[in-house]
Amino acid sequence: MAQRSSISPADVVWSIAQPSNLDAVIAIEEQSFPTPWSRAALGAYMGEEGFEVCAYQGRLVGYILAGLQIPSLLDRLERLTMSFLGSEKPAELVGHVMNLAVHPDFRGCGLGRSLLQRSLSYLKELGASRVDLEVRVHNSTAIRLYESEGFAIRQLLKGYYQNGDDAFLMSKPKV
């Protein structure tokens, strides 16, 4: 394997996640998170444009899953009420980074940043005016990355993860 410092985002091949990538995605997921997504949950997004993977020398080394948030029932009801009153509230398109992981052997090379930047460009193309994500409060490396890309902590989400870990809701206001 190449030395970590010798790999750069320019050395990887980028593509949309395919069903043939699922085992490698699951392996990275399980090495990256105390409460990994299930095979069924990740598999449901295979082939979606917002699910991008990167490979180095034929080995999948990272992935990101992002898309537009579906407005909450409360948001939809508020817009419906406003339209009845004659002052329609424009719908804000909000992007959501649902999952981002890089294989432990390839962290610190800029791949996470590149995955995030590519995803932000994709969400901007879809018309997102803001992007949200959740991150474990103790994941200081990820928090620093997100802050360096313009995200700010908006809210503490107590017990957000299955194992009871807290999360920060972070947002990037202008994509």
Which CATH first-tier class would you pick? Alpha Beta
Strand order of the largest sheet: 1-2-3-4-5-7-6
**How would you classify the helix and strand content by structural class?**
alpha+beta
CATH architectural grouping? 3-Layer(aba) Sandwich
Q: Please, how many helices? A: 5
Helix content estimate:
25-40%
The value of Rg in angstroms is 17 Å
Say how many strands there are.
7
Helix-strand topology string: EHHEEHEHEHEE
Structure description:
The chain is an alpha+beta fold. It has one domain (4-129): Gcn5-related N-acetyltransferase (GNAT) (Aminopeptidase, 3-Layer(aba) Sandwich), CATH 3.40.630. The protein contains 5 helices and 7 strands. It has helices spanning 22-32, 39-43, 73-84, 111-125, 140-148, and strands spanning 13-16, 51-56, 59-68, 94-102, 130-136, 152-157, 167-172. Strands 1-2-3-4-5-7-6 form a 7-stranded mixed beta sheet, with helices on both faces. Strand 2 (51-56) and strand 3 form a beta hairpin. The termini are far apart.
SSE arrangement:
Layout: E1 13-16, H1 22-32, H2 39-43, E2 51-56, E3 59-68, H3 73-84, E4 94-102, H4 111-125, E5 130-136, H5 140-148, E6 152-157, E7 167-172
Parallel strand pairs: 4-5
Antiparallel strand pairs: 1-2, 2-3, 3-4, 5-7, 6-7
Concise description?
Helices cover about 30% and strands about 25% of the residues.
Labels describing this entry:
single chain, globular
